[in-house]
Every structure is written in structure tokens, then in C-alpha cells.
Amino acid sequence: MNEFKDNHPAAFQSAQEAISWIVGRMEKLGIKPGLQRMQMLMEKLGHPERRLKFIHVAGTNGKGSTCAYLTSVLRACGYDVGTFTSPYLEKYTNRIQVNGEDIPDADLLRLVNDMKPVIDEIAETELGAPSMFEISTALAIMYFGKVAYPDYVVWETGLGGRLDSTNIVNPVVTVITNVGHDHMDILGDTIEKVAAEKAGIIKAGVPIITAAQPHEGWSVIEQTAKAKKATLYSLGDQFNYANVTSQLDLQTFDFTGPFRPIPGVPISLNGEHQLKNAAVAVMTLEVLRQYYACIVDDEDLYKGLKETRWPGRLEMISNEPRVLLDGAHNPEGAATLAAALQTVYSYRKLNLMMGMLSTKNHTGYLRHILPLVDTLIITEPDFHKKGDAEMLAELARELLHDMNRQVNIVVERDWKRALEILTSRTEQDDLAVVSGTLYLISDVRSWITYQTDSEKGW
């Protein structure tokens, strides 16, 4: 366990000190796509990733919900489950969990102190210093592979797939929820290029499940799967779902797949898109059941799906006034949110507060949202890549002019003041929505729930 500690004094005295060192690298080093540093890290750490069964999940939207479904069902089946997700909503340690419990501070401190000399060593090579996300990924692998030993690890990609640091693992099954317009400044300027990056997590002979549709770069996923001799299970072809009932906080669907039909599957998460995410999770579990002798009884499957919660996605965080949080931050996410606002929720007036990063496609987002809102409050997330509120407001005004719509627009850069404006304008029959980057959702959620600032981050 402590291969390095005997030769090196502890670099950090507390978990908070270690976390600050990791997180501080984000602004200094940013995102560094590529796997060479991760390969060297794993080699020097003794390849702990080879001891674990990973379910690797990529996709533009729905990754987090799909990971939540998989984790919940596997836990209901009696398995110990590790999860690695990003971004985190409240605390850095949220991103590394076993059975819903964050990595303990003592383990985090010990592991980071173990890894620090290796990280410093790699920083001296021509590959350069490992990034925040690479160190976080390695920390998760060390915790799962050398301390906690979960039966399965639900493993969410950070960005894209092919060059993402999570792609260092060889999973038992691979999932690509969908492909859409996100991070195109890094992943490529067409859906096909984005799809190729996501498809980079497909491994030789490892089954792949996807809900990507033909217009979403599905053919790129299909071609990659064929080339890698990976069996492809695609929504609409090998498996499908049909909505049976839909009401607030309870939906049911019938699942049909290549191995068996599963009728009346219940979920508590809202929105049509959650049926699709749950169907992807069910197909993934069916593959685990069929090929890896994973024991998934129907009773546990239903229980796990119904009990799945996913904070910050169509989450009613307050009832007086009603405040709904949703981390929609790209055109596809906005379309999903708009559909839910038109079918799931009732309201007299809709007041929406939004804050974005500067790197996103805001025009597509606003086209879906503007037709529905009565008041639009534009703010800025507390993050270094925040989108300028006044520029966003100007874009909204232009689009509203084209739509021939009148909407009350308020610009308030301070998100806490913006939240006060939002709640003060929302009466009993109205609905307030906070949407946009998860950095904003994280702050608002912590503030409403605990009256504290979050540690949010990528």
C-alpha cells in the first residue's frame, strides 16, 4: 500500500491541503488531453486499474443519470460499487465514492502522499506535469484498487473519451449515452468528430451500449464497434423501451431487449429523457447478467431504478417558492429541459435564472428556452471560465426579436443576488428554474440546502 511513503516525507498534513494542491492545478495546467502521463502514472503505481471491473460511460448528456441508475441497481443487488463522476456538486470527495460514501479524508491524504513523488517525477519528464483531472483519476483508481476493492466501478469520462484520462482502463462493458454539441472547442467542430472522440472508449471485444441516434454520429460508433469486434447494442435496434405511465416523480416503461422483455420498469426521475437513460442502464445490466454472471434479480432491478436520485437534474430543491434545478448547459440539454417544462410541470409564470461558461453553444440553448420563459435572469457562475452575463443578455434579446417575443430580462452578475431576485418574483403558482453550468447549479444547491458555499469543481 505505502510503496513510496517510506522513502519520502509526507508532502501534505491534511486532506484539505492535498485537495487544494490537486484543484489548484486546474487553473495552472488546465485540461491536458492525452494518455501518456496516465500510462506512466499507472505503471509507476503498479497498475492498480487491472484489479477492477469498470463500466465505462461516455456521452454528451445523460452520463451522470445513467451512472446513478447503474450504481443504484448494482448496490440493490448486493454488490459493492465504486463510482467516479464529474463535475462534483458540493465537495471534491463526492467524485470518488464507494456505496454512496465519499472517499474518507484519511485514505485520500495517505494516497495523495503516496502518489506525490511519482507525480513530481513525471513532471520532470518531457511529458510534463499531470493535470488536476489526471491526478483525480489516478487517486480514484488507487482508492478502488488498493483500499476499497469494490465489485464494480461505474466510471464516467470527464471530457470526450479517446484522450480522456479515464480511458486508461479496460472495462467489462462500455456505454455511450449519446452524442451532441458540447466541448466542441476541444473535441471537434462537427458531430462526427465529437462522436469519434466518444467512440475512442470502445475496446476490442468489449460490448458497447448506446442510445445515440443516426443523426448524432451513430454511424461513427457503429463503424468503430465493427472495427474493434465489439458487440453493439443500440437503442431502437437491439433494445427499446415504451413509456407506460408518466406522472410527477414516477414513470414506468416496458423494456424489450435481445435476452428477454422486462415489463413495468419504474423510475422516480422526471422527464422523457430519463426513460431513455434508464433503458440504457437496463441494457448494460442485461449484458453484465448475460456475459459476466452478474446476479440481477428483477426485484432488485426495480428497486434500484426506482430509488435512483440524481441531484441537480430536474431536482425540486424548494417548494415555497418552487425552485427547480437543472444542469442543462447545451442545446440537447435545453431541449430536454424544455420538453419536461411543457409536460411534467404546471405553472402560471416561468421565471428562469441561468449562468453559463464562456465555451458553450448558447444560441442553441436559448432557442429552446426563450419561448417558455416569462422572466429571464442572467447571472455568472463563480468560475474562471464564466460566460459574460451582458453578452448573453444581448444574444437573448436578438433571438427574442427574431421570435417576436417580449420577455423581461434581468442582468445580475452576482448569482446570490440573482437568486434573491428569482425567488422574490416567484409566486405560489409560479415555477422558478435555475439552469446552466453545473458550477452555478452546485453553488445554488449548496446555498439553498445548507446556506454555505460549495467547493464545486471539474
UniProtKB/TrEMBL annotation:
Reactions the enzyme catalyzes: (6S)-5,6,7,8-tetrahydrofolyl-(gamma-L-Glu)(n) + L-glutamate + ATP = (6S)-5,6,7,8-tetrahydrofolyl-(gamma-L-Glu)(n+1) + ADP + phosphate + H(+)
Record Pfam families: Mur_ligase_C (PF02875), Mur_ligase_M (PF08245)
Domain Mur ligase central: 57-284
Keyword ATP-binding found: yes
Record domain Mur ligase C-terminal: where: 312-437
Keywords: ATP-binding, Ligase, Magnesium, Metal-binding, Nucleotide-binding
E.C. numbers: 6.3.2.17
Residues forming coiled coils: none
Family recorded in the similarity comment: Belongs to the folylpolyglutamate synthase family.
UniProt-recorded name of the protein: tetrahydrofolate synthase
Organism, as annotated: Paenibacillus chondroitinus
